[in-house]
Amino acid sequence: MCGIVGFTGAQEAAPLLLEGLKRLEYRGYDSAGIAVMGKDGIQVEKVSGKVEKLCERTKDGALVPGKTGIGHTRWATHGAPTEPNAHPHLSNDGRWAVVHNGIIENYATLREELTAKGYVFLSETDTEVIVHLLEYYDNGDLKTTVMKAVARLEGSYALGVLCADQPDRLFAVREASPLILGVGVGENYFASDVTALVSYTKNAVYLDDGDFAELSPRGITVYDCSGQRIEKPVSRITWNVEAAEKGGYEHFMLKEIMEQPAAVRAAIAPRVKDGEIRLEEFDPSEEELRGISKLVITACGSAYYAGCAAKYALESLCRIPTEAVLASELRYSDPLIDEHTLLIVISQSGETADTIAALKECRSRGAKVLAIVNVVGSTIAKLADWTLYTWAGPEIAVATTKGYTTQLTVLFLLAVFMGRRLGRVDEEQYPGLLYDILRLPRLIQNAIDLNHGIPALAKKYHSAASLFFIGRNTDWASALEGALKMKEISYIHAESYAAGELKHGTIALIEEGTPVIAVCCNEALEDKTISNIVEVKARGARVLAVAFRGDRKIVSQANDIIYIPRIHTLFTPVLAVLPMQLLAYYVAKENGCDIDKPKNLAKSVTVE
Ligand code: G6P
Fold this sequence. Notes:
Number of strands: 27
CATH class of the largest domain: Alpha Beta
Bound molecules: 6-O-phosphono-alpha-D-glucopyranose
Number of domains: 3
Strand content: 15-25%
Structural class: alpha/beta
CATH topology of the largest domain: Glutamine Phosphoribosylpyrophosphate, subunit 1, domain 1
Oligomer: single chain
Largest sheet: 8 strands, antiparallel
CATH architecture of the largest domain: 4-Layer Sandwich
Low-confidence stretches: none
């Protein structure tokens, strides 16, 4: 999705802006541009395509001199990914430049109004109305001009604004789209994502919806929507530059797969003290906890599949009815949610538009909200009553890996914690469950080490036209994520099915050589899944099983087997997904795909 950077200081702006845009590339985009305040006014350079092309065109920024500027990577919504549609957009008089993330919902009306006033539109974007509004309302005072223009906008927007009249000044505006200010010495920045700031400063100011800020090399002033100056705390960014770089791996995805033992350890460590799970950030009163009659988990993509997998642990250990619902469905479903519902919202980025909307919808019906989020200070973290951070560190590859396994880890900690507080996990069960959670980092490492044969398996499976992933119960949840990983990065059609449902559809598609990945880590149901394996094999399928090390039953049934270490059934999804992440990675590599930035996908989906 779109990315924003802004800089004002004593250094040349363009190289810094280009560097910031490169750090935002992982979010997914299709065009890029910068605007820099030069001696003769604002100079804009844009390309359709990659930031690299922008670097070439501008000789790494040398052809765009100046010390204040804004930059953007665009993921097309209104209008194709062409050069005219790329940001920054310039006003007709050339005095205003704007970059924008989000969607201006009333742009059609504004466009008509501005066209009637004589403004000429050069792009098909919703964003362009903003520069013309700025020119129209320009009264010589930057702050009130920005306020007047912004007051006309409906929708979501993070804006970076540059005006030729005040060459070292920038404006940043936030409404329902993330924007963070970076505080430097003699220079200041803004960016839509903390990864673009980490190489320059560790001091950040998180804007709230409705806030806008004025930046110059000398300082930052933040105002609320009525124009009143407000004080904002400066927070420390804990991520470092190395964490946002590849560190010797060929792809961010592989690096992030390998980081999972450490990431899961970081998710657990602050929450287990003296042999007890302590979730200090989640502190409902006894009455609130006992009053919960239903758990609703909502999220999108892999975060939703983490919810599907954790549902079993939450229901089984807390004995509270639990459902996982896609956020894009929940928001429009007139859900039966009240003050006795605990809504668990899962999101790596904390900025997914549908997830935010579902949260707001359920909150308006009285639900209390617990967020499980990776990005500190993100919108979902701010909106929730309680937030449990996953502490996975920056995740750059579009397809999530450590984001997903840390979400599961936190959800399992939550299930055991709540189950214990409610008295539904007894004293005998508790130490065993806790022991298995504490072992997860080591077992994840084992699972990764056990699977050095996966590149060879990828050579067998990479030319398949379709892959089917099957499993039952917790294994089905793992299969859902396994299939998603495969299709996201390898572009092979991959479908997940509850193994018991095979006979009601998918089996019609099984032919000689069709690969079926069967997740068989739920021992109580293994015989049932094996009977499904037998059925597909009888129709020619080639079966790759994911099973516990030492499982003898599976040996004679599957064509290939990938093993994971044994663990409590409820927690198997954290381990079962690992070989499937690796398989997807190596299949995609075999097929020469752009693994970290798959086509058409975005890391952070900030539009509906
Ligand atoms: C995109 C990403 C997925 C992610 C989903 C939800 O589709 O590519 O990896 O699972 O969004 O994102 P969130 O940030 O809310 O977890």
